[in-house]
User: Which sequence fits this backbone?
């Protein structure tokens, strides 16, 4: 895992390829312009953004070939319990060719694929992303947006292009989400 913390990664179309099985390829708050390739290895997340005290900006990345045979697969995950007054932006990313092997049980991790997951306190903008080629054996979505209970943040989901996703294109799970 490349962990950039609060630092900014600007890739200018740099490709990062997995060379072994790991949980996530990139972890950080400001990630722009990378091509992230799971390269056939067991990966859980392409980009994993956790607890971002300054908000987050994930833009203009391509995430491909993320697969896993034992747990869920997520292209971009923003799981943030920080301050309600921050904004996370997930914009203009291209996420495709994700795969998770089914175990035949809906609701657990194996067999779950999601392009973008935003489960947050702060406000989130998910805009202009292209998500496709996500076969969903058990459960999954192109975009899953939810707020933690008690959050005052708002999620805006607009102008995303989602196709060839076997289950739901966009799932909004809690109030304060505009789609």
Assistant:
């Amino acid at each position: 895992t490349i962990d950039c913390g609060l630092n900014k990664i600007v890739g200018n179309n740099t490709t990062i390829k997995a060379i072994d099985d790991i949980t996530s390829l990139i972890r950080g708050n400001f990630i722009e312009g990378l091509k992230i390739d799971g390269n056939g290895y067991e990966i859980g997340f392409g980009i994993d953004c956790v607890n971002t005290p300054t908000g987050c900006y994930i833009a203009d990345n391509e995430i491909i070939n993320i697969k896993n045979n034992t747990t869920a697969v997520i292209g971009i995950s923003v799981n943030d319990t920080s301050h309600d007054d921050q904004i996370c932006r997930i914009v203009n990313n291209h996420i495709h060719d994700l795969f998770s092997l089914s175990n035949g049980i809906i609701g657990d991790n194996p067999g779950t694929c999601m392009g973008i997951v935003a489960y947050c306190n702060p406000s989130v903008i998910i805009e202009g992303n292209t998500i496709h080629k996500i076969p969903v054996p058990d459960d999954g979505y192109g975009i899953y947006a939810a707020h933690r209970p008690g959050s005052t943040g708002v999620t805006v989901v607009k102008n995303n292009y989602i196709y060839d996703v076997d289950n739901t294109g966009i799932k909004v799970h809690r109030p304060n989400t505009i789609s």
Observations:
- The first strand starts at residue 2 and ends at 17.
- Confidence is low (pLDDT under 50) at residues 1-7.
- The chain has no helices and 16 strands.
